[in-house]
Amino acid sequence: MRRIPRVRTFALAALLSASAVCRAYAGSPSMQEFTQIERGRYLSILSDCAGCHTVPGGKPFSGGRPIETPFGNIISPNVTPDLETGIGAWSDDQFDAAVRKGIGRTGAHIYPAMPYNAYTRMSRDDVMAIRAYLNSLEPVRQSRNANTLPFPFNIRSAMSVWNALYFTAGEFKPDPTKSAEWNRGKFIVEGPAHCGACHTPKTLLGGDRADQYLQGANLQGWSAPDITNNRRTGLGSWTAEDVALYLKTGHNRAAAATGPMAEAVELSTSRMRDEDTKAIATYLKSLPGNTDQAGPAAVDANVMAAGGAIFRDQCSACHGIEGKGVPHLFPALAESTMVHSNDPTTAIRMVLRGARSVGTKAEPTAPGMPSYGWQLDDRQIAAVLSFVRNSWGGAAAPIDAAEVTRVRSDTALRND
């Protein structure tokens, strides 16, 4: 199934800026209206609305982006204020029901590719502010292509069963025993930022596995990492400052954002206020995650020797002979949660296809990793990754060549 990359364009930043909002409402007599629009603009950043509702080279928020799911592609709708193809003719109640309850304008269920199960944590006032911002944009007339969901997933009424299993409506309620910063972080993570959509494992029906909250998942040909405070596979070795810096710049002393996370950093987290990235970090660092620790991995000595030789020849120039990398530039493999993840999909993919990190206002350099899929065969890639996963104090299951073959085939089919 081909993955359609999320939009990555600095032109969008200008359209999302406060100055654009000012121009849209030039001459408005009400400062209160502008305040609501600006609040909605920021909430749309927290919610990463542009990531799904804008296609590369297209008009902002005019929809048409295929959202890949395990059941088929769902096409994002036009949410500009066009009266016929957008949301211009929607009532406030209809818009609120769609965003927070998953009920479309006609009363039909919306598929949870639009994460209403997270957006329900926002208040109606939050949603009305987002609508005020969207209404300030240029109306775009653009019809929506049909979804490509096969039977029986194309039966929307079946969503009532999904909702009964996995959807609980209700606004976020602060925990009075926790700090305001912690509560703000939890609200953003569980609500507008919908972090669980990527980082929480899913059932066969696509619902969240609540008992594995934010412990990593596989989607769209990538493995989203564990973002709990697990020491081996999560953020346990990161400080709260490391987490906040990663969200704000796309880099920190140990890691660099790539793939879907790089796009989320570019369009959403890098544009958040510092106090919000710090709040997210505070909340994530409070999550214990799975406390199970891996014992010493049984890796064949010949595999380790072969992998070590490949690492010295191909990888050490950037990542260092001891896997320490270069802070804010090349990831420290010795501390990489992606490298030690129980799901090695992303690590394999990056060696096969290479990757480009994200450039942000704070750190505009976007370092890249070259592809080695043309140079190394599946057995060699498995060896070097098994070496990296079990060196410098690390311990993780060795990777089999068959797993590399699977990822190579999948990425070739996606052509992304």
From TrEMBL:
Is Membrane there in the keyword field?
Answer: yes
UniProt keywords, alphabetically? Cell membrane, Heme, Iron, Membrane, Metal-binding, Repeat, Signal
SUPFAM superfamilies noted in UniProt: Cytochrome c (SSF46626)
Q: Which residues form the signal peptide?
A: 1-26
Source taxon at top rank: Bacteria
Q: Where does the Cytochrome c domain lie?
A: 35-138, 180-288, 302-392
Compartments in which it is found: Cell membrane
Q: Pfam families annotated for this entry?
A: Cytochrom_C (PF00034)
InterPro entries from the xrefs? Answer: Cyt_c-like_dom (IPR009056), Cyt_c-like_dom_sf (IPR036909), Cytochrome_c-type_DH (IPR051459), Membr-bd_ADH_cyt_c (IPR014353)
**Name under which the protein is recorded:** Mono/diheme cytochrome c family protein
In its UniProt entry, the species of origin is given as Bradyrhizobium japonicum
Traced from the root, the source organism's taxonomic lineage reads: Bacteria, Pseudomonadati, Pseudomonadota, Alphaproteobacteria, Hyphomicrobiales
